[in-house]
Design brief:
Elements (H helix, E strand, L loop, with lengths): L1 H16 L2 H19 L9 E5 L4 H8 L3 E5 L2 H8 L5 E7 L4 E5 L8 H11 L23 H31 L13 H26 L7 H23 L5 H8 L3 H13 L12 H14 L4 H29 L2
Parallel strand pairs: 1-2, 1-3
Antiparallel strand pairs: 3-4
Helix pairs in contact: 1-7, 2-6, 2-7, 6-7, 6-8, 6-9, 6-11, 7-8, 8-11, 8-12, 10-11, 11-12
């Protein structure tokens, strides 16, 4: 174990020296932040109102029946809240005149303030008064933003590919420094060397994926299911990293070869999204197809253990097939 940790420590030191580990580690986080910035929030799709805590209870109850109401301590805090980037209207109740005052930033979208005014005018009138506004809530089949769901899934799958890329670049550096051949005459066994070299890439995939989940706020998903799926798909990325890394002598050629992995990843993602289900069988050869389906259902909180275990088993079988295909190549490259 000590020898494996030594190899990992050496790769970390080498990677941080040329910013490799730092770049590959923060790339998923940066992509997740971009998705979060583009993702439509509740504030952009509903009528939101901010009121003071001392608003009478009956008025608060009335407002909450129509709006998404947020409360602040005083008028200054209300003004600060209204000046943020989202569309929020301030409503102040004047107990002396028994009327309402609305506060706007001035750049709100559409004419939502008209609906706000009509609903405020309704307060205090007879229950028989017909309000010329219909408030409805509908579910069009999405429990979350499609950009959030698909964006997170794509980033997670590509994070596993980045883990494989880290492995191959570390191997290329070993070859460039003529230290790979020294492994064969060192006290480190080949198994320990492979585990040590692969651990950092797998760890990157796990931590990067969890960071994406937390940044995009998926809530209380089943992290054990997610870990199971990520470990399964990380193995195949690690094997690809070893298979490409041991036969390349410089980083540019290695990265160019690794880009071939993008083909099955993108084919699996967009095939699963757009192909009719009856045609999905043409993607069964790709482990990324099974990983994509597992992660999608985990993020939607609809995944079942039998499904996750079956998909992970299929990924491991495909990984074993790839390993036996590349084992002689990897063994020869490590000599």
């Amino acid at each position: 174990m000590k020898k494996i940790l030594t190899i990992i420590g050496r790769d970390i030191k080498s990677g941080t020296r040329d910013w490799l580990i730092i770049y590959l580690s923060i790339a998923p986080i940066l992509f997740a932040l971009v998705i979060k910035g583009l993702m439509p929030g509740v504030e952009s799709t509903t009528l939101n109102v901010v009121m003071q805590h001392d608003t009478p209870a009956d008025i608060s109850e009335y407002m909450e029946s129509y709006f998404d109401v947020e409360y602040v301590s005083d008028l200054e805090a209300m003004n600060d809240r209204i000046l943020r980037l989202d569309d929020v209207y301030g409503v102040v109740y004047d107990s002396n005149n028994e009327g309402f005052e609305t506060i706007m930033q001035g750049n709100e979208s559409a004419d939502a303030h008209i609906a706000l005014g009509l609903i405020l005018d309704q307060y205090g009138l007879s229950e028989d008064t017909v309000l010329p506004v219909t408030v409805e809530f509908s579910d069009v089949g999405w429990e979350m933003s499609p950009l959030k769901l698909y964006g997170a899934n794509i980033i997670i799958l590509f994070t596993t590919v980045l883990g494989g890329m880290m492995i191959l670049l570390n191997l290329v550096e070993e070859k460039m420094n003529n230290t790979l051949s020294a492994v064969n005459v060192s006290p480190i066994t080949r198994t320990e060397f492979i585990i040590g070299k692969g651990s950092l890439g797998v760890l990157l995939a796990l931590l990067g994926s969890i960071a994406v989940i937390l940044i995009l706020d998926f809530g209380s998903i089943n992290y054990l299911m997610l870990l199971t799926s990520l470990l399964a798909i990380s193995f195949i990325s690690a094997i690809v990293g070893f298979g490409i890394g041991v036969v390349n002598d410089e980083p540019i050629a290695a990265i160019a070869s690794m880009k071939v992995t993008f083909v099955p990843v993108l084919a699996s993602i967009f095939g699963s999204m757009y192909l009719p289900e009856k045609w999905h069988f043409i993607l069964f050869w790709s482990p990324f197809y099974w990983a994509y389906n597992s992660i999608r259902d985990i993020l939607l909180k609809t995944a079942q253990w039998n499904q996750i275990l079956l998909n992970s088993f299929i990924i491991l079988v495909l990984t074993a097939i790839l390993f036996f295909t590349l084992r002689k190549r990897i063994a020869h490259g490590l000599k």
